[in-house]
Write a structure and sequence with these properties.
Helices cover about 10% and strands about 65% of the residues. The chain is mainly beta and about 210 residues long. An eight-stranded antiparallel barrel has the order 1-4-5-8-9-11-12-15. Strands 10-13-14 form a three-stranded antiparallel beta sheet, with no helix packed on it. A hairpin with a 2-residue loop joins strand 4 and strand 5. The chain is elongated, with a radius of gyration of 23 Å.
Length: about 210
Amino acid sequence: MRKSVTALAMCSALALSVAPAFAQSAGDWTLGLGVHTVEPKSDNGSLASGTLDLDVGNSVRPTITFEYFIRDNLGIEVLGALPFEHNLNIDGLGKIGSTKHLPPTVSLQYHFNSGQKFSPFVGAGINYTTFFDEDAKGALSGSKLSLSDSWGLALHAGIDYQLNDRGALRTDIRWIDIDSDVRLDGTKIGTAKIDPVVFGVAYVMKF
């Protein structure tokens, strides 16, 4: 009996020693520091009653995430970033302006295979995008250009690769529903349908 207990204790200790420590348990929280690219979809709508096709350029910026686990493997994540900046182009006219935006996003996320070397996750939530520092250029130079703020659905998926007991390398991708009214000198001239894919890498630390 004593040998059986000793063997069981040794097996348990061995299992605990080899089990990965980057598991997400209720009450844990993580901080992620990364770089992401915002790539608007190819068809960004049209202006001036459909006569001018709009193209919104890509942007790359540092990002930060906080995630708090309300249950094992289930967390609430907040995404922030330095302001992204996009060129605005019109087919046939070239660059007609630029704008900056901040896209804070709150998502509910589920992490599969938590505690293993590779841990995929999926999430969904709400995005609020605020536009600012719009600047009219080229054919619109001298006019006042503005884009309205946007609320929309956000989807998120990715995978964490455990580097140590407190850190992981994350690759992820998001889709965000962003539609913004475009105004020139106060008059609406169309809607920018941005709906970007956002992808990048981050280092995630658990606390």
